[in-house]
Amino acid sequence: VPGTRLLVFAGRLAPEKNLADLYTIVARLGAPYHLLVIGGAQRARPHPRVDVVPYERDPRRLAGWFAAADAHVHAGRAETFGLVTLEAMACGLPVVAYDAGALPEIVDAAVGVLAPPHGPQALAAAVVALFERPQSALRAAARERVVREFTWDRALQRQVRRYASLLNRGSLLRAPALPSLA
Fold it and tell me: Would you say 93 and 9 are in contact if contact means Cβ atoms under 8 Å apart?
């Protein structure tokens, strides 16, 4: 529908994802906002402004869903990495998420808006704030961030450097020496 602001979330529909917060923000925001949730067991419509569709195995189709959306929203407060957020950003989506868990490590003001983790009201305000900003700049920055910082090569290099720094500081638990095989 022209003028609709399509928000998207994809992932496991587990309690820690706080989907109720997403449903609440869309209900609170009203028109023109609509939420697409990808990852359900079957199609559902828990609210007139929410559509739940089944998990999408095909990465190209998932990228198509992301490309059709206006923003990625994530209500989890305990994400350990945020792969789906990176996937959405790779498709040029700005992000709205709680300032909690691992998401602040990948989302900043250049690519989206982080809300205080105080509930749906804060998340809804962050959605409104996101759409008050130039969308083309946010979309370009989101895509560029993933290409620049989150390729598999970059992630592996960063992980190896981190392990090396921990070893050099002696902060890892010392394992007993292994017997020589010679």
Answer: no
Q: How far apart are CA 37 and CA 55, in angstroms?
A: 9
CB 46 within 8 A of CB 23: yes
CA distance 101 to 147: 22
What are φ and ψ of residue 137, in 5° steps?
Answer: -70, -40
Alpha-carbon span 27 to 47, nearest angstrom: 8
Count how many residues are written for the chain: 182
Q: What is the pTM of this model?
A: 0.86
Residue 96: φ, ψ to 5°: -120, 125
Rg over alpha carbons for the chain, rounded to the nearest Å, is: 19
3-state secondary structure of 1: coil
What ranges make up the beta strands (E) of the chain? Answer: 5-10, 33-40, 44-47, 50-54, 71-74, 95-98, 112-115
Backbone angles phi, psi at 47, to 5 degrees: -155, 150
The per-residue pLDDT for range 37-70, each reduced to its tens digit, is 999 999 999 999 999 999 999 999 999 999 999 9
Q: How many whole angstroms separate alpha carbon 124 and alpha carbon 29?
A: 7
